Structures
1.
Amino acid sequence: MTRALIIVDVQLDFCEGGSLAVEGGTAVAAGISEHVARHREDYAVVVATADWHIDPGDHWSDEPDFVDSWPVHCEAETVGAEFRPELAPALDQVQAVFRKGQYAAAYSGFEGFTDTADRRIGLADYLREREVTSVDVVGIATDHCVRATALDARTEGLDTTVLLGLTAGVAPDSTTAALAELRAAGVTVRS
């Protein structure tokens, strides 16, 4: 079994002090770095995803409903789109970053792309080419982008585990609902 670690959206805007902060985001960044340091040999591939909005349409709003529209966040080339400094040790092990949501809302890392020396490639193809069969998913937010990335991983036929202790959710009710949806889809949720 070839396993990958997918680190989802551990960016400044999604952590304490950011424009769309999730409580516990900074601690998750540090925890992921510790996890990678302890378990690097468990993963053939380590990748990260990042919101990278240029003009995402009505995904941004001055009057967000926090369901389909949100305050401005992770604008491309701004400080808020950068990764948390606590994630730096893990980023040293990241082989590719998949940026998503340039011109539309994008919750799943599988909507993102990375540029290689000769082409642009999506996350599913990138993992397939490296013969990845299982993934661990960590990051922010449990009830939004982690949820969407894990569900798409299952759709791609990957054995998928969410490491709950290395995620942060926006709200208890939506996180509980997301975890139930993940389990129903065959995703393993582990503390």
2.
Amino acid sequence: MKKVWAILRTALLALLVAFVFKTYLFASYIVDGKSMEPTLYDGNLLMVNKIVYDWQSIDRADVIVFHANEEEDYVKRVIGLPGDHVAMEDDMLQINREAVAEPYLNVLRPNDGAVFTKEFTLESITGESAIPEGHLFVMGDNRRDSLDSRSFGLVSIEQVVGKVDVRYWPFSQVALQF
């Protein structure tokens, strides 16, 4: 009887810990679509850290998950932060009128002579000259095939679920941080 009680107690404790982790600390997410290739692929399973932004600020280039609407969550890369002026000129990202390297795009950029990311300014998309407080500008890494802030505008920081910390499936693509 003592052995059964010990096993039951251990199982209940494990379930409680799993519930706390899943509810408050981490979320599992399945990538749906090609907008983040080659960083993330359709069907990848991700672990999203839901509490990291309680202790630190969202940084440019973080890969985040956010509520796009009531039914869908999107995974995108943070490009612009509050106060930033964002533009794309000659296929080069400009933040506050300075060129910003995007090394995570190097493996995706085709050598086909075509523009990888079409030119835009924040003002042409949102009517704002700078990203307002409490908002982010996000883009997918697959710039030719991504539904992102160029299409739907700015993302409220309140919509952010968390930061993608781990890709855990498939095992051949396990990776920490992006």
3.
Amino acid sequence: MAHLWKKHGLAYLFVAPAILGMLLVHYGPMLQGIYMGFLDLRLETLRLYLSAPFVGFANFQEILFDPSSTFRTGFVHAVRTTLLYALAVNTLTLSLGLLMAHVLNRPLVVRGLLRTLFLLPWVVPSYVVGLLWGFMWLKNGVINTLLVEILRLLPEKPHWLIGPLTFVAIVLPTVWRSWPFVMVTYLAALQSIPQELYEAARVDGATPWQRFRFITWPYLRPVTAILLLYGLLGTLYSFNIVYMMFGHGAGYPGEWGDLLMTNLFRNTFGMWNFGLGAAASTLYMLLTLALILLWYRAFHEDLRAR
């Protein structure tokens, strides 16, 4: 350690202010938020802020074990919906992005035009996506008109923003906006694979599936790991689409549409219960860390190899 400081001490001094600033910006608010979870920080005690009454683990106990707590019921439903939402969105996004990357990796005449058109959903802000799709999902909206009156795939117009169908209504807009980024990333990875490997495999009589399994996929695993981590964090903390789709936060999206971020926002800032909200946020942070550890165990060998 001493020889490293002697060799790079001046460089460490130059970057020290930036590192200190980043630590304060990131870990200062996080530690303060965790501490707020141990306080009775309601509207009545908000003026006291961090000097509000200390209640220990009471907020955590109410969220985890109190069946009479309305906060707990909504929190549990929101956790379940968010995990299913993350699973559905990332599965569909990665699959669709990989498929379209393979399509654009072929020598098509209109490949440049298709690449531009496919990227358009990605440049639309997420809050605009939520607003537009909220109108499209209405009973007399574009989607029901297309499915019922034009294609005649459904006998009647369903209510997409009420009941279990709400889950579909929040998943599809997220996939629509997210898959172009996955496509571009996979396309760059596909174009970096040496073509000599495919030529040798064809000479040896390998089928398209074998070429994908033994050549393409090993090269794509590290990219898939990063895309999965990026998508996992994005979906676990998704907010804008649901917030804009259901009355700009004023409406309750229902059991199958309420994500954790919208649930915490409504219960914390709508009910002015910052202690419970901070405790719920801390629990959710721990859940997210557990999922990231599972991700790391699954992909750390691929990341280390690259």
4.
Amino acid sequence: MGHHLTEQQQALSDEVRDFADTVVAPAAYEYDTKRELPYDIIAEMGRMGLFGLPFPKEYGGQGRPYFDLCIAVEQLARADQSIAVTLEAGVGLGAMPVYRSGTEEQRQEWLPMLARGEALGAFGLTEADAGSDAAGTKTTARLDGGDWVINGTKQFITNSGTRITRLVTITAVTGESTRADGSTAKELTAIIVPAGTPGLTVEPSYDKVGWHTSDTHPLTLRDVRVPEANLLGERGRGFANFIQTLDEGRVAFAALCSGAAHGCLEEAIRYAKKRNVFGHPIGQNQHINFTIARMQSRAHSAQLAWQDAALRLDRGLPFKMQASLAKLISSEAAMANARDAAQIFGGYGFMNENAVARHYRDAKILEIGEGTTEVQLMVIARELGFRP
């Protein structure tokens, strides 16, 4: 690790690394082929306390820094990105909005089960015309007799259709707000929709290129009624709340990318030392060991980037730009390392039972999910003082 870990953090890193190598990795190909979420593995992660790492103990959590969640996500992603994103999204997108913006009653109701890994939450933001452009949100919610009545569709929603999914936080248009210049804008509000609410339909899962074990569905909401008390945060603060959610989430997502980059690096080193061609290990060829040296430089940079962002987050310092830098650097590192590792493995790197092949399929989404590369560049440019 680039950052000097405390004794407790090093113990966590070692524990999750061992779990990833002995439990997650051996099962990865089987569940990838079945395209199933391994509930036994998720349950064990819950018993390890991973889903509760950043939450206070009064809500069933571990009371540890956000940095520690990132350590766990990084180690899991070395072995299986799908398992890592299940944890990252379950905490960052499912539970964290309830903790950050929820009432005390909402926290008491939802956080203990989410922190124990007995339940998963999802974050319903993206639509066909909305995601990076939140102004394109078409899902609506109106008050009727003390209930929110919600109509719309969401897409690409992680953890939304598992058998332990218990809630989806939906962003919806609840009216119009007036800007300082007198113009109007859509009033976006976040609302908790419990799983199984009549009118909420979890559509069939996507046929994805990668992340086959991760649960991802489109959602349809037709006259979904939930109590007015399911408002999450202040009415009209949905945009600000989800920006905070995404900023924090990008830090853990960057750790996931770093883990993928390290996983590819470790596989390439192992293979280059044992694979013999023309009478000697291929790692003795300068092109191969130089390629691996570049992979090391990428993985190292990715790790330092998320660690810097996580430390700033935990210390209450501004971290928006650092989160986007970490996401940009680490996702590109993961993609490049997956490509190079597959090339080093040759034909074996194209076989799905090989971890490198799965990393290669999985890595592309890292440059898209939780804000595309282009969005990260936009955020960084704006933080540097540039405006369109």
